[in-house]
Amino acid sequence: MDWQTIKTEYVTTETSYRKLSVKYGISVTAIANKAKEEKWVEQRKQFLNNTFTKTVAVASKKKVDRMTRIMDASDRLLEKLEKAIEELDLHLATQKTKTKVIEYHNYERPDKPTKEIIEEEEKLIEFTSIIDRKGLHEVTSALKDLKEIQMLKSELDRQEQEAKIAKLRKEAEEEEKKDNEIKVTMDNDLEEYSR
User: Fold this and answer.
1) Residue 17: how many CB atoms within 10 A of its CB?
2) Fewer C-beta neighbours within 10 Å, C or N terminus of the chain?
C-alpha cells in the first residue's frame, strides 16, 4: 500500500477519506486510522495555512505592483494636466506664407518666364489671449476623473482582498468540519464494531 501517495493527496487537496477509499480500494476505517496516527488533519491545516499565506503574499504583491503602475500613470497624467493648466491662456495658430519667384531668361521672348517657383512657408505662432473655457472644463474633468480613479481603485482593491481572504478561510473551515464529521463517524463505527 502506497500510504505516502494517499497521505500527500489528502494533505494537498480537498479530497475526503471516503473519496480516497473509493479511489485506492482501502476501507475508510483504515484510512482514518492511518490519518489519525500520522496526524494528516494537522498537516493539511499547516499546508492550507502555508498555501493561504503564499497566495495572499502573491496577490498582495500583484496588487501593489498594479497600484504602483496606476499611481505612476496618474502621476504622469497629473504632470500633463499641470502643464495644460499653465498653458490655458496660450493659443497656437499657423501662419502660411507663399512666395512666387519668376525668372526670365528667354532672350527671344523676354516677357515669357522661363522658371516659376512657388515657395510655401508655414510657421506655428504662439500667442496669449483669454483663457480657453472649453480647455479649462476639460482639464477640470480630467482632474476629477483622476481623483475618482485613484480613490475607487484603492477601495475596490481593499474590498476584493478582504473578500478573497474571507473565502479562503470559509473553505478551510468547511474542510475542517468535513474531516471532523468523518472522525466522529469513524469513531462511532469502531465502537459498534468492538462490541
Assistant:
1) 25
2) C
Task: List Cβ neighbours of 150 (8 Å cut-off, separation of 6 or more).
Answer: 70, 71, 74
Reported pTM = 0.38
Between CA 78 and CA 150 the distance in angstroms is: 12
Alpha-carbon radius of gyration of the chain: 39
Joined grid coordinates for residue 145: 476623473
DSSP letter string over 29-81?
HHHHHHHHHHTHHHHHHHHHHHHHHHHHHHHHHHHHHHHHHHHHHHHHHHHHH
Q: Which stretch of DSSP H or E encloses residue 88? A: none
Collapsing DSSP states into helix, strand and coil, what is residue 180? Answer: helix
Q: At what angle do helices 28-38 and 40-86 cross, to 10 degrees?
A: 70
